[in-house]
Structure formats: C-alpha cells, structure tokens
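Tutorial, part two.
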Amino acid sequence: MRKSYFFNTLIGAIVVIIIGNTPAQAQFLKKLGNQVKEAAQQGVEQAATNHAVNDAGNTTDKAISKGENAIKDIKKNKSNNNNSANNSENNNTSANTSTLSPESSASAAEGEPTLATFTNYDFVPGDSIIFESNLADEQSGEIPSQFTLLEGQMDVQNINGENVIRTVQGGTITFTPRMTTTSYMPDQFTVEFDIMNQQWGLNHFNIDFGHRVYYSGGEGILPGIRFGIHDVTWSDINITGTYPEPLDKLTNGAPMKWHHVAIAINKTQGKVYIDQYRVLNVNNLTGKPNNVTFNVSGYEDSYIKNIRVAAGGIDIYKKITTESRIIMHGILFDVDKATLKPESMGSINQIFNLMQKDPSLKFEIDGHTDNTGNAAHNLTLSQQRADAVKEQLVKMGIDASRLTTKGFGDTKPIDTNDTPEGKANNRRVEFVKM
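Running the prediction step on this input gives:
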C-alpha cells in the first residue's frame, strides 16, 4: 500500500512539473520530497528484518531512483525549453540575425537534387562570366557590397556556415549587381541563382532586364519574368509555364528549401529552368536587355545566393570543328571539393552527346582552379575534379579509353584573379581534342 501511495504521489508530481511551476506546486514538491525520503527509509528498515521484503525494497529503491531521475530530466528539459524560447525570442528581435535554418532532414531528403535527377538537364551557361556574387568576406547584417539596393531592406546572413543574401520581410526589395554602367547585357546571356523562401518555396519575385515587370512603358526593353506559386510568366508576351507536379509539390510544401533557377536568352529565344525542370520556353521575345534586377515582394524573408551572369553561349559542335578545345564554366563543384553539383549535368550531357555522335572523338579533360589557397592543394584538387568528370562520363556509357585527365591547378589562368568574375572564369574544365 505504501509503495502504491508513493508511486501515485510521484506520478502526480511529474504531472505538476510538466504543467507548470507555481509557489503552491513548489510546496507540494517539498512535501513530496519528505515523503520520498520516508518511503526510502522504511524500505531500508524492512530490508534489515525480512529478506523477501528486502528484494521488494531494492525494487522500490530503483523505482525511486528512476522517479527522481525522471523529475530531474523533466526539470532539465523544461529549463532547456525555456532557454531555447528565450534564445529564439532574442533572435527574432535582432534585425541582423537570421532565425531560420534550412530544411529539416525529412524535407531535405524529399526532392534533394542529385546527378541522377538532373539526367535530362540541358541548360548550359554562357562562356564568359560578367558577374559572379562572392559573399564569403561580407559582414553579417550589412548590405552586400557587390549590389546596389534600390528599395526595401536586404543584408548578408550566415546559414549553415555560408553567407547568403537575405531580403527582409516588409516592403518590396529591389537590387541589382553593382556594375560600372547600367546597360551591360549582350543579346545572348544566361542568369543563374539559388533562392529559398521562409514559407513558400518559389513565389512572389521577378527578374527584370531594365524595366520593372509591373510598370508601364519599357518599350524596346526585354520583358521580365514573374515567378508565382504554381507557374512562371514572361511578362508583356504573357506566356506562362506551369510547374511540373513534383516541383509544384516542393514549391508549395517545402519551406526553407533551396531551388536553382537558370535563365537562358538568345535574342528572341528564352528558356527558364527551375531545378532539373525546364518550365518555360519561348521564341517571340522583343527588346534589348540592359541589366539584371531582382525584385522581391517582401511577403516573407527570402534568401538568395550564387548569382552568376554570363555572356554568350557555347555551340560545342562548331567549337570542335574550328578549335581544338572546349572551355566549360558550367561544370561546377562543391567548394574545395571534387563533388559534382547536379546542375553540372547540362554541360556534361553536351559532351556526352557529342561523343556519342562521333565515336572517333577522344578528349583530355583538364581541370583548372583560381589562385585561392595553396598552389599544391589546387593542383591536387584540379586533378581530382578532372577525374570526377571522367568518372561521370564513363558511368554514362563513354569508354574510359577515350578519356584522359590532367590537373593544372592555378597555373594557367585565362583571366585576372583579382575579381570574383575573373576567378570564376579561371575555374573551369577544358576538353582538349586528342
């Protein structure tokens, strides 16, 4: 009976602690402590006089110990929860601190980009990079120095050890790369970036090329692109591309998930890609592009990184007949690693198709880096990256005997290493005809 009374009392205490902690509850816990001690003492006395009861007493002692530990754990968890709540509150009141972390492990697994999911990807970036964002040395909470903020609020935030641009919830945010002139775009170009939203995966932002999407006028300027909840629309010509079902599910059900956006324009032709999907393809564009401007509606915090603008486009079939090498900037790797990024498949697919059509073709795959870091390390890294490209092509069905590899590190730059754009041009993979 006494053990039953003790356990009932103990359970009641745990419930009280879970619900809250008031002065009355504190008195109750103090009284409980005395009862626990009394029960334990009686258990010891009974153990001294009766061996059978001693076994029961040992069981009771263990139960008491577990009960006390449970109480301690509950108090500890409650304290940690209170601390977490306080920390969260402090973060929410700081204008210079991002309070959100990217997707949970569950949502990260769903729709996670891989080389396999990008198997049919055919986007290839321009062959000369004219703008490349580099936020590594930017201060958190400051406006990124590479951009001109035209309206709204934006700053640099660190997410999972990486600096990214945050556009702050509130009014419309408009920004553009800081260039020496306001009109710098060629007729043929590509734009790439990664974006994620606080709640909606893809929504309420536009990309303009010299004239705001919703403004009147803009005659003679290439129309901009509107990204919505379920589709993408090329303004003025009002052609809309609907998201494929898997992408639509992710963009509406997976907040804080990065999406890769790629845009390719060649005079009247335009294509828009989101992740591995081509969602819009038009051939009746008019007007000239002046620049690239990001316009975010500000319904929520949004995050943007890896902005790249490149001029031109590679026609590898012409290249291989007129030149001995093909230079590709679209084969990308994780930072300081030889791990291929999924969006590299557009460029790799081009080489694969070329070699499939002409079985006599053989290439030396050359890896090149910029001059960041140690020269010996860069030499090794460039070799590993060249090997990774060969490995992927062999997996796709190209005979290994048709490919060799060589890493040059930073010994053969084709541009300056003094600017982010120059460094990006120097980071490349070349296919040299053998």
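The domain at 116-313 is CATH 2.60.120.560 (Jelly Rolls). In part three we will examine how such features are distributed along the chain.
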